[in-house]
Specification:
alpha/beta; Rossmann fold; 2 domains; six-stranded mixed β-sheet; four-stranded parallel β-sheet
């Protein structure tokens, strides 16, 4: 996979999806830069269509489906941002979408996915959802995997090209990891354009399948997702995303839920940007990695999504 997945794939994805997605802003935060003693920038995928980066990969995959792939419709397994992205892309492209969702999916994700026009079918666990997704694929549905697909990864990687375009002096990019498609795509793009740039991965305890896989030297399946960062809740990376992580990442920092929530609060109070814990954990990781960054560095925090329910925000930030 790493040898066959290149910047050319990502550049082709960029040309393909440009009419359908936003080019999100990259903004320097004076507050966070002073606090960290370096230059901190925020890649604002929270303002992407559907509230996360996921539409990039969904559109790239679905635009490449032939007539046969479009005929039955698309199927995806997701309890988060991928569900909304596939539903939105399907509506835009005039396709039917079936989304398999774990029963524990927050109601705001369910409602948004249905409002975009997708059919939702609940499954007891993510593992069962992935199994059923493959079964639907065997029946002729077009499978849109949340991360283990080179077209999906190429779509996500288009954000990496934007980072280099907007900040040629970038030295470091910090990206959160679910199944690894985002970090694999972004890292492939950035490292091809600026080989010296360091890519740092982030996970939270209880949703740390990539860190465990890197330590084990093989894909590790988590028995359960216990972190509040639900959109990092892939039960396992794939062989392809693990290979890209090995190739491109400096390390994967695993932070606590408490650290991600403290960072979420800081981002909201000081930058006025509401993120999910899956995005705010990049700031928590930057704090942990602080001795890696000096005044000469230009560090991008990839804010991957902002689909946080108000009830969850109040619960998370209520304090003891």
């Amino acid at each position: 996979m790493p040898e066959s997945f290149t910047l050319a794939d990502i550049e082709a994805a960029r040309r393909r999806i440009v009419p359908y997605v936003r080019r999100t802003a990259l903004e320097r935060s004076e507050t966070l830069s002073r606090r960290a003693g370096t230059n901190i920038y925020l890649k604002m995928e929270v303002f992407q269509k559907t509230g996360s980066f996921k539409v990039r990969g969904a559109f790239n995959k679905m635009l490449e489906l032939g007539d046969a792939g479009r005929a039955r419709g698309v199927v995806a397994m997701s309890g988060g941002n991928h569900a909304q992205a596939v539903a939105f892309a399907a509506r835009t492209l005039g396709m039917r979408a079936l989304i398999l969702m774990p029963q524990a999916t927050p109601t705001n994700y369910v409602a948004a996915t249905q409002e975009y026009g997708a059919e939702v079918s609940f499954v007891p666990t993510p593992a069962e959802g992935f199994r059923l997704m493959e079964e639907f694929g065997e029946r002729g549905w077009a499978v849109v995997h949340p991360f283990d697909d080179p077209l999906v990864m190429a779509g996500q990687g288009t954000a990496g090209i934007e980072i280099v375009d907007d900040l040629p002096e970038v030295t470091d990019v910090i990206v959160s990891i679910g199944g690894g498609g985002l970090v694999g795509g972004v890292a492939t793009a950035v490292k091809a354009l600026r080989p010296s740039v360091r890519i740092w991965g982030v996970e939270t305890h209880g949703a740390d399948c990539m860190a465990q896989a890197l330590a084990a030297g093989a894909v590790v399946t988590l028995p359960a997702i216990t972190s509040i960062a639900r959109t990092l809740g892939a039960p396992a990376a794939s062989a392809a995303t693990l290979a890209l992580a090995r190739q491109h990442l400096e390390s994967v920092t695993v932070v606590t839920d408490a650290d991600a929530l403290a960072a979420l609060r800081l981002l909201l109070e000081r930058t006025k940007v509401l993120t999910e814990p899956a995005a705010s954990c990049t700031l928590a990781a930057a704090d942990r990695l602080g001795d890696q960054f000096g005044r000469e560095h230009h560090v991008v925090l990839f804010l991957c999504g902002g689909n946080l329910a108000l009830d969850d925000l109040c619960r998370f930030t209520a304090g003891p």
